[in-house]
Amino acid sequence: MTQFIQQLLNGLTVGSLYALIAVGYTVVYGIVQLINFAHGEVFMIGAFGSLATWQVVCQKSTGLWVLPIMIVGGALCSVAIALVMERFAYRPLRNAPRLAPLITAIGISIALQRAIQLWYPGATSNVPYPSIDGVTGGSLTVGSVVIQRTTLFTLGVLVVSAAALYIFISRTRTGKAMVAVSQDPDTARLMGINVDRIIAAAFAMGAILAALAGVAQGLRDSNVSSTMGFLAGLKAFTAAVLGGIGNIQGAVAGGLVLGLIEAMATQYIPGQFGGNAWSDVYAFIVLILVLVFRPQGLFGARVVDRA
Amino acid sequence: MSTATRRPRDTEFASGKGEVLLQASDVLMQFGGLTAVKDVNMTVHEGEIVGLIGPNGAGKTTFFNCLTGLYKPTSGEVRLAGEQIPPKPRKVVKAGMARTFQNIRLFGNMTALENVMVGTYCRTTSGVLTTVLRGPKFHREEKETRAKAQELLDFVGLGHTTELLARNLPYGDQRRLEVARALATDPKVVLLDEPTAGMNPQETQQASDLIFRIRDTGRAVVVIEHDMRFIFNLCDRVLCLVRGEVLVEGSPEQVQSDPRVIEAYIGTGDDDDFDDDDVQEGPA
Amino acid sequence: MNIPKITISPRPNVGKALLAGGAVLLIVAALLAWSYDSTILGDLSISGNPAPLQEFAIVMGVVGLIEAALVHRRLTSLSWWDTTSSARALAVGTLVYIVLIDYNIAYQSGGVINLDPGAWLALVGALVMVAGSFLLAPVKVTNQLKVHGANWLEIVVITATLAALLFMVAFILRGDDGGSVLAALAAGGTFGVLLFRGGFFTWLSVAAARHRPVIMLGALVVALLFPLTQNGTDANMSIAVDIAIFLCAALGLNIVVGLAGLLDLGYIAFLGTGAYVGAMMSSAASATIGWHPPFLVVALLGALTSAVLGLIIGSPTLRLSGDYLAIVTLAFGEIFHTAVNNMDGTNGPDLTHGPNGIAGIPDLNLFGFNFGSTHNLGSFTISNYSNYYILLVLVAALIITIFSRLNNSRIGRGWIAIREDERAAEAMGVNIFGLKILAFAGGAFLAGLAGTIQAHATPSVVPDNYTFQESSFLLAAVVLGGMGTVVGVALGATVLKLLPEKLRFIEDYRLLIFGLALVLMMRFRPEGLIASRRRQLEFHDEDENLADIVQEEHVDEQKANA
């Protein structure tokens, strides 16, 4: 039982990270039907951006007060990257065959990884990520279950982000416009919505959440690496598909479900094919099964037949 | 407006009642709670031209999609030459029914000849081995395909366009090319979805002539059209579809003079548009 | 893309004089010393004894003189040759070439001050040529497609072109420092662009179609002769083997992406499958399967295993298309990588020895021919790697044959129809699922075959050779080179594999450049360097002008071949 709850927590934590990144995929896909393959790299840039902010702006302090500054710094970096790629790489390709943006995304992804390796000091291997008072360090014990502080932080980030996201989508002009554009870009344009701006806003929103995930991941693993974006991005995409691509609530739920599946499979699949070494494979098998048998996702996509 | 006059048949099909080629019985098509096509019956004989009219959203194209296997009817059945049609468009083509599209769907970056050659795909059999080894069968079949495609281009009056790209052809020629491509599948029944949409009177006249000539080869033709004069001049029998149901069926004269048909055409058009492209694409 | 047009009012007489004058300066300069230091760029320090790089400058000068003469007096038999455009290409290329060399000399010997007079004179010559070429008036040329020389002449020209290509490649490979390689590339590029702008390649494309068997055979012979230019050394041949393996895989992928239009992001797994089957069934000490049949059997098994995987990976195409399919293939690729990485006895059965891979795979022995030893062919020595290279060239030739035969057939037309409009294709009776699966399984089969050879040609088979990055390199070779064309993919594969090997100084920036190149290509030339016309049309759906041009070319070509 303890083990089960422990895995449940693990799954939810990892799942929260997937969920935060997955929103970026789903919003962008919902609006421009583009799998922004480089979104994993946006997440990675967010993590490195926050690290750089900590090193430069926060003077490597470990007080809790630096955390918001780190988050803002990371978010600024990832938003900047996301906007640049949207404006200069994707926007010119909006009417091109589907192959073009996908290959562009792969190109951006490879270039960004390499750029970080080349120019971020020490980034050819793992770079240590700071511990911050209050959110890292000594774990809590409830009964026989050990809860890491980073787990609580990650879950907290997800809850707060999800609430903020909900308010953004349902209350703000930009949020509502985003929904309108994703349903019918042409009509939205006729209604006077600046579609280019909304698409940029979607990229920026996804980037902010990805940066949050980057910070959470950094705190959790105590290090970041230039290649962290690839797998995380792929799994987050899985989560987005699982929740029904284009469906924002679905992406959050999909992330959590995927995290749980991974954690439980790792724990409970017996024999040589069980355990951590295969956990990525479980996620990919889920991805394939969902895409093949239920491409509209577990919760049904708002947008259908977009593949 | 069309000025085509109905043309007498060749003696072979003089009765107009050859063998039954296509028979749709009680075809019902529902999308969720929406009934797009309701209990439609239609019989088409060899050498017959049947028209399908009705206001926008009457379910004409949806009914076409049921006939060609793109949709599986909720209930009812469609028989082609006595056999129930297979559930896949590709197999329906092979069974002997081909179609054109309301919005032209040619392979734009292929030449006219290549477009028609694609149509022969289901009647040719060269597989990977034959193709890679380039045996005598490959050369024979390729030659035959080419010759047949050219013949069909000549038949629809596009003999001069052989090596031109489909996307470069004028609109009317594109429609005719679609017909040639459909004919290349060797169909018993040809379904034409608005073959004269966007055509000028002269082109419409040519289209009628072409359909008569197709009929004269012994094939049956089913035509969806909005242009009343065109369809009444062309068809042996006309079905008027309103809100997914057959309102009137009969000779052009009967349908033309039926007050219900006139009524149906006035004051409708606000239904959900089932002829819309989105539906034609099919749900996920 | 809007490039502002530079308009210079033409002064043809001044132009041709300057062009000729610059060319003469260049030739004279090439006979002088360019540097005092004989170690730089293969000794440019002796007057009157031009080094290879200076010989190129002489050739450029001579071509410049010929161009000037042609401007002076047009020959009717060469009325299709665009003198002005080609002269400009030559002049600009020459300038780039000279600047590269001068920069290199200055850089290596510590400053511009160390350039000898020859280097300066060459620079002046090149500048004068540029000035002259841009003063030439535009010329009206006759349609190159309609040029039809005597058969023997055409064949001689094609053969000469192929031989020149072989020479150029061998020369580039011979360079052992980055500077020489870059300079040689610039020279090769200059001649290439010169011929392109002059209209030679337009003619070549039709002429090659007329003499298809000749050009195929010629290309094969050239590729097979390549080891003879290496004097039996292995340094370049091991690179050539890498390129050949990569090329085989890229050509296989070209069937999937270029013909069937399906995006496969996990294609390297098929090469890996072949390699692992080859390795596990080899007689290596670490082989994990006890049965060691002859190589031909292993090759067939490897290819078939790979094809079966291709079937499995391709089966979602029944329900998926586009981006989703690409993601599924990516996931399969990752599963393959994780699986071979894991199966070391602890995490799964011991099949692959995990991250260490299977090492010490013995050399191939086919019909008593040992690939590990050197063989003598007359006075030439065929080394170990050359053996593999020759085998791989033959495999590549096989794949190219299969590719082009499938392309020009009922099956190929079906694939194009699917790419154009899947639903319309299905409504016309095309077996979409069958054709897609065929592309997947066929491509996998060919990659698997190449993989079994790779197992023997490389020291060991390890999981890290088969990562997503490798898949994206393969895809890039296809996309950058030109989807659906053999020449394009061959060019893409060679460039992608060769440049990093030869230009060590870009090693660090290789991935960065590569990534950015992908982005820029998709933006400005999505159809690839050497585009298939059809692909070009697909990527420029709204370009009416292009459609007209392509159609005209096609019609002319049909007439020329009739």
Question: What does it look like?
Answer:
The complex is a heterotrimer of chains A (307), B (284) and C (562). With 307 residues, chain A is mainly alpha-helical. Chain A has a domain at 23-236. Chain A has helices at residues 2-32, 39-56, 66-90, 99-119, 149-171, 173-183, 185-190, 195-221, 228-242, 248-268, 279-293; strands at 127-128, 140-142, 145-147, 223-224. Chain A is globular, with a radius of gyration of 19 Å. Chain B folds into two domains: 1-96 and 187-284, P-loop containing nucleotide triphosphate hydrolases (Rossmann fold, 3-Layer(aba) Sandwich); 108-186, no CATH class. By secondary structure, chain B is of the alpha/beta class. In chain B, the strands form two sheets. Chain B has a six-stranded mixed beta sheet, sandwiched between helices. In chain B, helix 3 (112-119) packs across helix 5 (136-155), helix 3 runs parallel beside helix 6 and helix 5 packs across helix 6. The longest helix of chain B has 20 residues, at 136-155. Chain B is globular and about 60 Å long. Helices cover 36% and strands 22% of the residues of chain B. With 562 residues, chain C is mostly helical. Chain C has three domains: 12-210, no CATH class; 234-363 and 372-464, no CATH class; 532-562, no CATH class. In chain C, strands 1-6 form a two-stranded antiparallel ribbon. In chain C, a hairpin with a 2-residue loop joins strand 2 (365-366) and strand 3 (369-370). Chain C starts with 11 loop residues before the first helix and ends with a helix. Classes of the chains: A mainly alpha (307), B alpha/beta (284), C mainly alpha (562). The B-C interface holds B 68, 70, 88-90, 93-94, 98-99, 101, 105-111, 114, 117-124, 126, 128, 131-132, 134, 138, 141-142, 145, 163-165, 167-168, 181-182, 184-185, 281 and C 401-402, 405-406, 409-411, 413-414, 416-417, 420-421, 423-432, 438, 442, 534, 537-538, 541, 547-548, 550-551, 554-555, 558.
